[in-house]
Amino acid sequence: MASLDTFEITLTGKGSHAAMPDKGNDPIVAAAELVLGLQTIVSRRLSPLDSAVVSITQFNAGEAINVIPETATLRGTVRCLQTPVREKVQRLIGEFVERLPTAFGVRGELVYNVGYPVTENHVEAATTIRRAAVSAVGEANVQWGCNPSMASEDFAFMLHACPGAYIWMGVDGEKPSAALHNPYYDFNDQVIEPGVAVWTSLVEQCLPLS
């Protein structure tokens, strides 16, 4: 699974009345251009063979409908599968924030937070949990060698501290489940029993009774 960094960009211009935009420096227009510009990091500045996702998830500015505000704020996330790519994306975001807003007479400030590392399983631990899962639910119900996910997981810190493995458990029932972080997600209670069976099998393999 991917690493996860977060960032906050504050654009400071000069507020004015909405009827007289020439009297100010509009941070909203600068922020809108910055949103578009940041999307070119992945599409134009990285190799197509490198995986990264830059997402702007919040855009906040102003309170009054007839006032161009002084500031605008963007927040978002960066997800990567490789450390060099992660470092390059961070550097490029900094360059965009420093240079692009000046064309609009606006000042950009970036706060970049390096977060979760890449989640990488240890082979021996992954093999152990796979063996336990096969024993519990059968070979046909265990997938091995799944494609990487650009989602992120704080369990990555644990895997950097000691050997282990992170697994996924499918929860689809008669129809596909909505994804996580979705208001329509509904946990399928029927997966509790096989889930417990997998963990029980793991304990029996790793801590057998003498």
How would you explain this protein's 3D organization?
- With 210 residues, the protein is an alpha+beta fold.
- The protein folds into 2 domains: 3-115, Alpha-Beta Plaits (2-Layer Sandwich), CATH 3.30.70; 123-207.
- The chain is built from 5 helices and 6 strands, in the order ββαβββαβααα.
- It has helices spanning 27-45, 83-99, 123-137, 155-161, 192-206, and strands at 4-12, 16-17, 52-61, 67-68, 71-80, 107-116.
- Strands 3-5-1-6 form a 4-stranded antiparallel sheet, with helices on one face. Strands 2-4 form a two-stranded antiparallel ribbon.
- The radius of gyration is 23 Å and the shape is elongated.
- The two termini are 37 Å apart.
- This is Peptidase M20D, amidohydrolase.
- GO terms for molecular function: N-acetyldiaminopimelate deacetylase activity.
- It comes from Pseudomonas amygdali pv. mori.
Describe the structure concisely:
By secondary structure, the chain is α+β, with helices and mostly antiparallel strands.
List keywords for this structure.
20% strand, 2 domains, 35% helix, 6 strands, alpha+beta, 5 helices, two-stranded antiparallel ribbon, Alpha-Beta Plaits, four-stranded antiparallel beta sheet, 210 residues
SSE order: EEHEEEHEHHH
Q: Can you tell me the CATH architecture of the largest domain?
A: 2-Layer Sandwich
State the share of residues found in helices, binned by percent. 25-40%
The whole-number mean of residue pLDDT values reads 95
Strand order of the largest sheet: 3-5-1-6
What summary fits the major beta sheet? 4 strands, antiparallel
Q: What's the CATH C level of the largest domain?
A: Alpha Beta
* Contiguous uncertain segments of 5+ residues: none
The count of helical stretches stands at: 5
Number of strands: 6
